[in-house]
Write a structure and sequence with these properties.
about 550 residues, mainly alpha, elongated
């Protein structure tokens, strides 16, 4: 009968009225007197029916008593602990997660305090598992059930709220310590973090669905490799490439989210996973893995669609870091893939810039490779030096890619000219390179006449099409400028006519014209900028053709 009083007594304690001390004493007496099984049922019912406006206060008042009841149970303790933890976490998931430091310190909704209370609640049960594992006790199915429930609790905590929390090792906040306690609990109950992350041994009974499990593991990887929580106890036998390969699935899960906190964790984990890998070492075979395709595509979405500048900047840094880690063949394949799938001029221009850098890198001593010299380079240029929409290409939207493509073409022509006369530069570094037998073989392939003819064919086709596009675009934008000027003259005439009206009407009209004149001015600037851009493109085309003509006059 005393169990019936638990709910009303808890309500009085939460209200913190003058009688709350007496109610607390009565509640404590009932907890030590009534049947634990009946009490557990009553407390779970209270949790299930929590008032949304008093979630944190009720949980903070209830958790110590719930812990006492569970510790008194002799049978089915593991299952009961699991029920209690699941019910508590379900209610905590309704509380807003503090994002900034100020929000966390204020803890207006009590999530931080509740997380600390939850960690304290689970501690004696964790110690019980540790004691039985380390002692001379025979592990029973009930002990294993308790361990499984604690594992579920940790995995749910990693997903909610820790995945949504901004964490920093420099700011050891209450939620950071909750994150640390969660990872420490996993280690304490002898869960292998490496198996959990890299081999995913979780049985279906320990997770609600695969997506949530991946989110939990992604957060765990972030805490381990970025926040370095318990990293000292993590095995060091795994190679950096293996760690990266295993983490890519988790990184993909984070980068496919739209939440800022998830994207921040994904970018940070991606960066840390790549930093340990040697430059120019990732083989092309890795790009055949699904995650090695999906992650760059999700990263491209961040670069092109994310409205937050700091995420785009971080994304661009890790994008370049990933390119740096690929070997020459992998870079070649990756560039081809991005040129075919990105559909964004900014990303494509960045890839073209990297192609130029790789060509320059390949001409340095010891870096020669067939992927950015010779026929393989020509196959890449076929994707770079083209206009997918032909004469209908929007030159302004494609400006970044086109300018980088023209700069790459100019660079190749200038570089090829230098390589045709190495003898006259006997004291240069380039001549020293050409003295090496391997270099002689590669550059002789690079400078074959048929390859030069193919490059010229690609160049001529590209520049011809580009000239047509420029001509059409210039005619269109020139007509727009003319129409805009005519419209402005008409409006000026209307303004002069309006000046002959009454003073009131004149004042009203002047204000209208002043506001409306802003848009045409901006339009005029945009149109003029477009015409200047076309002039710049055409000047580059003229310079490229001059270089090509000079190159043809050089004796072979």
């Amino acid at each position: 009968m005393g169990c019936v009083l638990v709910a009303p007594l808890l309500n009085e304690v939460v209200k913190k009225e003058k009688s709350s001390d007496h109610c607390q004493a009565a509640l404590t007496h009932l907890i030590t007197t009534c049947s634990p099984n009946e009490l557990l049922h009553s407390l779970l019912e209270v949790i299930e029916n929590l008032d949304p406006g008093a979630i944190s206060e009720t949980i903070l008042a209830l958790v110590p008593h719930l812990q006492t009841v569970l510790l008194c149970l002799d049978q089915r303790k593991g299952a009961c602990v699991g029920l209690a933890l699941s019910a508590l976490q379900k209610q905590l998931s309704r509380l807003p997660v503090p994002y900034t430091q100020q929000q966390e310190e204020a803890d207006e909704y009590g999530l931080c305090r509740c997380c600390n209370a939850l960690a304290a609640f689970a501690k004696p049960f964790t110690e019980e598992v540790v004691m039985r594992k380390n002692g001379n006790y025979v592990t029973t199915p009930e002990d294993e059930e308790l361990r499984t429930e604690l594992l579920k609790f940790c995995m749910r905590s990693l997903r909610d709220p820790l995945l949504d929390v901004e964490l920093s090792r420099d700011r050891r906040s209450s939620l950071w310590f909750f994150a640390r306690e969660t990872v420490v609990t996993l280690s304490a109950i002898q869960v292998s973090l490496s198996e959990l992350l890299f081999f995913n041994p979780l049985k279906k009974s320990t997770q609600t669905d695969n997506s949530q499990s991946t989110e939990s593991r992604a957060c765990l990887a972030y805490l381990l490799f970025v926040q370095l929580i318990t990293i000292d106890s993590f095995p060091v036998v795994f190679s950096p490439v293996f760690v990266l390969q295993c983490n890519m699935e988790l990184i993909n899960q984070l980068l496919s989210s739209k939440k800022e906190s998830h994207l921040l964790k994904g970018l940070a984990l991606y960066t840390k996973s790549l930093e340990s890998v040697q430059d120019n070492s990732l083989p092309v075979s890795l790009l055949e893995l699904k995650s090695f395709y999906s992650v760059p595509q999700n990263l491209r979405q961040v670069l092109t669609d994310c409205p937050m500048q700091h995420l785009r900047e971080s994304g661009l840094q890790v994008f370049q870091l990933f390119i740096n880690k690929l070997d020459a063949e992998a870079k070649h394949k990756f560039f081809r893939c991005m040129l075919k799938t990105s559909n964004h001029a900014g990303v494509e221009s960045y890839i073209v810039k990297n192609i130029r850098n790789q060509v320059e890198f390949s001409t340095q001593l010891g870096n020669a490779n067939k992927w950015f010299l010779g026929e393989e380079l020509l196959s890449l240029l076929g994707l770079v030096l083209c206009l997918p929409q032909g004469v209908d290409t929007d030159l302004l939207n494609s400006m970044d890619r086109i300018m980088e493509s023209l700069n790459l073409l100019r660079y190749l022509l200038l570089r090829d000219k230098d390589l045709r006369s190495p003898v006259s530069q006997s004291n240069s570094a380039l001549s020293l390179l050409l003295c090496q037998p391997a270099w002689l073989m590669i550059f002789s392939c690079y400078l074959q006449a048929d390859m030069w003819e193919e490059l010229c064919r690609i160049k001529d086709k590209y520049l011809t099409m580009l000239r047509v596009c420029i001509s059409i675009s210039r005619a269109y934008y020139s007509a727009e400028v003319k129409a805009l000027r005519e419209d402005q003259k008409l409006k000026a005439k209307e303004a002069r006519d309006a000046a002959r009206a009454t003073r009131l009407i004149k004042s009203f009209r002047v204000k209208q014209e002043t506001v409306s004149d802003m848009s045409p001015e901006v339009q005029h600037q945009v149109l003029q900028s477009a015409l200047v851009t076309f002039d710049l493109m055409e000047s580059l085309i003229v310079r490229i053709e001059e270089i090509a003509e000079e190159k043809l006059r050089i004796p072979k």
